């Protein structure tokens, strides 16, 4: 069976809008094929061959996975439900400290890995003295994006005090790892007109690190069936060679919701049955009218007006509203709740939000990873997580780097 891509999938792969793809289609630059029965427009893989940024899709080379030559120790702040930590573990890194303020996240980590050193509490109160001289290799974390006060300050390490970034930088300063990995949202690039990320880079340089150009990684390129992006910032200690580290190469295949929820290359069985949120009666009646891959504009006009209310008359696409996923495309980015009106994540076939285990699969958590707390807390933990397979891909490159240092 040939691998095919919808207009939306091609737009995501190329980081352009669907309208741009349609414009190319009209101009003959990228001509869509049509299914005779459904009139569905799609592209075959070979149709994308002339796009240089998609050249990785046509390479047959397998990523070389290296095993650690010794035990590599990792410290992770803002660890959440363990998406990054599982990926690190699968790559061969050993977590020696994981911290999070959220008690449900920490309960999840302890339940699944009783041997991990999980410390719940304020990151500002963490004591790193037990790790001095213990050769910490990696410090990682996804600190929330916070602005700094720029008035009359040089914006060195001490000037960032009081922010969660300061606590991440303090961990690096006090443990002196060979490499650090910070992950964040795309918005950090433009936060405070780019001054925030530049300040962060300057601070880490002042602590003795060469900071690589921040890299926006699309999860769909790393065996994750979800259109999620994470900004990755890597720093290499200045006594070590910078050119040894490389960001992970994209995998030549993208995976879909079907790959996540059905037996496939990603999972050897269908998704386990689990609890999930339910729609109120009227919302279920409306969502039942939305086709796979569709959203509120696919509803009859009177229903659009009923569902959207005042938003119907406002500008913008609001494409997340009344949104049903498609079996044959990756999911949209998961949020902390699958039934929020602005960011709907409806099952492709059944009229309901994704269940907890479906949510976890779309984030590539293993089926035996158990989440603590209420259903609401479980969705929140999963939605906030770094996809496991993305973390593993980064972790494998860290192992390669450490093996050479």
Explain how this protein is built.
- Helices cover 28% and strands 14% of the residues.
- The protein is globular.
- With 405 residues, the protein is an alpha/beta fold.
- Helix 1 packs across helix 2 and helix 3 (83-91) packs across helix 12 (388-403).
- It has helices spanning 7-14, 18-27, 83-91, 103-112, 164-175, 195-206, 257-261, 281-287, 301-308, 356-362, 375-384, 388-403; strands at residues 4-6, 33-34, 41-44, 72-77, 93-100, 118-120, 138-141, 179-184, 209-211, 215-218, 226-227, 229-237, 331-332.
- The chain folds into three domains: 4-58, Multidrug-efflux Transporter Regulator, Chain: A, Domain 2, CATH 1.10.1660.10; 72-252 and 387-403, Vaccinia Virus protein VP39 (Rossmann fold, 3-Layer(aba) Sandwich), CATH 3.40.50; 257-384, DNA Methylase, Chain A, domain 2.
The name CATH uses for the topology of the largest domain is Rossmann fold
Measured between the Cα atoms of the first and last residue, the distance is 44 Å
The CATH top-level class label of the largest domain = Alpha Beta
Helix-strand pattern: EHHEEEHEHEEHEHEEEEHHHEHHH
Ranges where pLDDT stays below 50 over 5 or more residues in a row are: none
Task: Give the strand content.
Answer: 5-15%
CATH architecture of the largest domain: 3-Layer(aba) Sandwich
Largest sheet: 8 strands, mixed
How many strands in all?
Answer: 13
Helix content: 25-40%
Q: Averaged pLDDT, please?
A: 91
Estimated radius of gyration? 22 Å
Could you give me the name of the CATH homologous superfamily of the largest domain?
Answer: Vaccinia Virus protein VP39
């Amino acid at each position: 069976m040939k691998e095919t891509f919808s207009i939306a999938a091609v737009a995501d792969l190329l980081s352009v809008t669907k309208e741009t793809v349609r414009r190319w289609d009209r101009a003959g630059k990228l001509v869509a094929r049509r299914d005779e029965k459904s009139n569905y427009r799609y592209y075959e893989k070979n149709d994308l061959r002339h796009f240089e940024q998609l050249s990785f899709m046509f390479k047959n080379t397998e990523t070389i996975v290296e095993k650690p030559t010794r035990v590599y120790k990792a410290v992770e702040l803002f660890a959440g439900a363990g998406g990054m930590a599982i990926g690190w573990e699968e790559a061969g890194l050993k977590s020696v400290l994981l911290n999070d303020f959220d008690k449900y996240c920490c309960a999840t980590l302890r339940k699944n890995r009783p041997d991990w050193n999980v410390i719940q509490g304020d990151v500002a109160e963490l004591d790193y003295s037990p790790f001095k001289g213990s050769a910490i290799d990696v410090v990682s974390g996804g600190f929330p994006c916070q602005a700094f006060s720029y008035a009359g300050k040089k914006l060195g390490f001490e000037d960032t005090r009081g922010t969660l970034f300061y606590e991440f930088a303090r961990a690096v300063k006090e443990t002196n790892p060979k490499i650090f990995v910070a992950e964040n949202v795309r918005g950090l690039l433009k936060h405070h007109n780019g001054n925030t990320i530049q300040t962060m880079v300057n601070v880490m340089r002042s602590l003795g690190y060469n900071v690589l150009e921040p890299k926006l990684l699309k999860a769909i390129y790393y065996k994750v069936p979800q259109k999620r992006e994470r900004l990755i910032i890597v720093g290499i200690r200045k006594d070590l060679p910078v050119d040894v580290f490389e960001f992970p190469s994209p995998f030549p295949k993208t995976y879909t919701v079907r790959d996540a929820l059905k037996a496939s290359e990603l999972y050897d069985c269908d998704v386990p049955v689990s609890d999930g949120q339910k729609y109120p009666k009227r919302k279920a009646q409306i969502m039942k009218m939305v086709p796979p891959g569709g959203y509120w504009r696919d509803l009859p006009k009177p229903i659009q007006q009923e569902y959207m209310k005042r938003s119907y008359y406002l500008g913008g696409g609001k494409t997340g509203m009344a949104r049903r996923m498609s079996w044959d495309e990756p999911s949209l980015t998961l949020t902390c709740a699958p039934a929020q009106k602005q960011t709907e994540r409806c099952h492709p076939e059944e009229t309901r939000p994704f269940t907890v285990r479906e949510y976890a699969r779309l984030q590539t958590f293993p089926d035996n990873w158990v989440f603590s707390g209420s259903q609401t807390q479980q969705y929140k933990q999963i939605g906030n997580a770094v996809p496991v397979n993305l973390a593993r891909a980064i972790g494998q490159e860290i192992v390669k780097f450490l093996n050479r240092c």
